[in-house]
Amino acid sequence: MSLWIKICGNTSVEDALLSAEAGADAVGFVFAQSPRRVTAETVASIAGRLPKSVEKIGIFVDATFEQIATTVRESGLTGVQLHIDSTPDMAKRLREEFGPALRILRVLHYADGIGEVAVHISRDTNIDALLLDSRTAEAVGGTGLTFDWKSAGKSLSRNPEVSHRLVVAGGLKPANVADAISTLRPWGVDVVSGVEVSPGRKDAGKVRDFIAIARSASARLA
Questions:
Q1: Which of 106, 133, 142, 217 is the most exposed place for a label (fewest CB within 10 A)?
Q2: Is the pTM of this model over 0.85?
Q3: Looking at residue 163, what is its pLDDT?
Q4: Pathway membership of this protein (predicted)?
Q5: Burial of 195 (0-12, 13-18, 19+ CB in 10 A)
Q6: What single-letter DSSP state applies at residue 186?
Q7: What separation in angstroms does the CA of 130 have from each of 77, 104, 197, 200?
Q8: Residues 77/71, Cβ–Cβ less than 8 Å
Q9: Where are the alpha helices (DSSP H) in 55-169?
Q10: What residues are annotated to the active site?
Q11: Residue 9, φ and ψ in degrees, nearest 5
């Protein structure tokens, strides 16, 4: 199965198109408090310019069901990324509202552990993938910080049901994404700051390098 790659934190049509043309499977848009925050109106104007094959994922933290559902409809999102603060039944309600066409990712931070919690989330049939990320006191994503991949890999080896639905994030960049893939063997990878010039502005060379290196690393594991 081909590696799923998401380039997140897009704020302009130019950057989203760059990611799509470079071979990203998905582009992400942040609706939470962040220097990369965008509006539904902005995303709608971007989504209309992207190929239908490219997924448009919205990132939400502490949003209500009504806020998320309205944003999905207004912006043309094809998926949502829910952070750990979301209510337990959020995925279920979104699945009932939008059906299987909406990709639902649930974020788990490495600091919270990836044992029983990860297994519990992975068994939720309303969740399509588990995104493992790092965080700080100031930010729940886009931190530019990695976590302990080797330790995480050991935990995942004891919980193989998690691995085939795992998306790795947190401090990834062209220089280290191959190591992350070879260590964790994830279903997908997600990058924000590792391919930026500044928050919300992509570096074209880094975007292309990241995707090419990630694809190559994944192919070597096939």
A1: 217
A2: yes
A3: 64
A4: Amino-acid biosynthesis; L-tryptophan biosynthesis; L-tryptophan from chorismate: step 3/5
A5: buried
A6: -
A7: 18, 9, 28, 24
A8: yes
A9: 65-75, 90-98, 116-122, 149-158, 160-163
A10: 8, 133
A11: 75, 30
